[in-house]
Structure prediction request, 124 residues.
Amino acid sequence: MSHFTTIAIEIKNGDLLKQAITSLGYPVKENTLVRGYLGNTTNAEYVISMPNGYDLGFRKIGDRYELVADMWGVAMNVEEFVGEVNQKYAASMVLQSATQQGFAIEQQEVLEDGTVRIVVGRWA
Prediction:
């Protein structure tokens, strides 16, 4: 019996997802197996190997990604982790979009409350 749980997330760009995960300090393996209870596995595009043998994976379903993991064995607050990934991903999307539209990134900082502040500008 599989213990894997999936959580839908609003992430579409795999490259920026990988960038968000690595910026949080997690090494990412690509296109490999997510390990769970009693050696159960499932495939995912991006996998974070955990030392206890239970991994976190992100796999593409349609045009979005979902988090897949055996939540019984994952030794972390998954809700908090997803929030951190979403925040890093959103900041990367803003930076990429602003740059593509000809804006210059003038300032980027993380405030004490965890808010990311990005200042962009463009000469008209």
Observations:
- Residues 32 and 43 are 6 Å apart (CA to CA).
- The beta strands are 4-8, 29-35, 41-48, 56-61, 64-70, 104-110, 116-121.
- The chain has one domain: 4-121.
